[in-house]
Amino acid sequence: MALNINQLSVAFGNDIILDNMSIPTIYPGEMVSLIGKNGAGKSTLLKQMTKRIRPNADSITLNAKPLTLNDIGYLPQDHRVSANITVIELLITTMHVDANSLFTKAKSAEKALTLLDKIGIFHLANKICSELSGGESQLVGLAQAVVNQPSVLILDEPTSALDMHNQFMLLEYVKSYTREHNAYALMVIHDLNLAIQYSDKVAALHNNNLFAYGEPSRIIDQVLIKNVFNVNSQIIQLEQHPVVVACL
Ligand SMILES: Nc1ncnc2c1ncn2[C@@H]1O[C@H](COP(=O)(O)OP(=O)(O)OP(=O)(O)O)[C@@H](O)[C@H]1O
């Protein structure tokens, strides 16, 4: 059981974004954060994972088979739902329910409400999607991404619109989902301290390739931060976690 990304290349015209990039095997139950400067290719990598057809199907595999759309739940960057339907209706629709069966529909509503409760957004069930705030929309996007219980969660900056409490609430949910379902979570996170706290492994992308990969406490240090972000920093050790403080 493993998720593999091997020899992946992506170019837009003459611009090479990912150059024959491989990531070490990702194991069930693992949360992996992608870090790197703006434009490094993090979203490009995640978008490649959500493609129906890839030029080289073997470049991204789940249990040795090409990753399919059925395997994944995807929360894109800046996710917004513009539809004039309620959150619960959105989730039921996402579940691909047979519209003729009232029983199945009722079961789906129950399932969707349980999920909203688990994520901590039960109160949003009857809100209209197009009227949600940015942060509410991001949390609903997470519910939509997990509602069909995918094996692979692909989350592009899932905490970017969230307040401090909701950042932790979302990441705690992703952690429990990943552990309970033996799933794989790949997330782009800009906040290094959140990445350190919530990742089993961190993948740092730089110069069109993988710069470093491993447990956050082993790979995130002043040298990496200087090389990847061109920022001076200090690392403070707090219990087992390093805490990054940027310096001028
Ligand atoms: N459809 C496209 N056509 C042309 N260039 C693109 C396209 N999509 C992305 N790029 C370019 O590819 C590079 C990587 O973009 P990507 O969105 O993957 O970066 P990122 O690491 O996710 O950045 P950020 O942290 O700013 O979200 C950028 O230089 C971007 O301009």
Automatic annotation (TrEMBL):
Database matches in InterPro entries: AAA+_ATPase, ABC_transporter-like_ATP-bd, ABC_transporter-like_CS, P-loop_NTPase
Keywords noted in UniProt: ATP-binding, Nucleotide-binding
Residues of the ABC transporter domain: 3-232
Transmembrane segments: none
GO function terms (MF aspect): ATP binding
Organism domain of life: Bacteria
Gene3D superfamilies given in the database record: P-loop containing nucleotide triphosphate hydrolases
Pfam families xref list: ABC_tran (PF00005)
Name of the protein: ABC transporter ATP-binding protein
Native source organism of the sequence: Psychromonas aquatilis
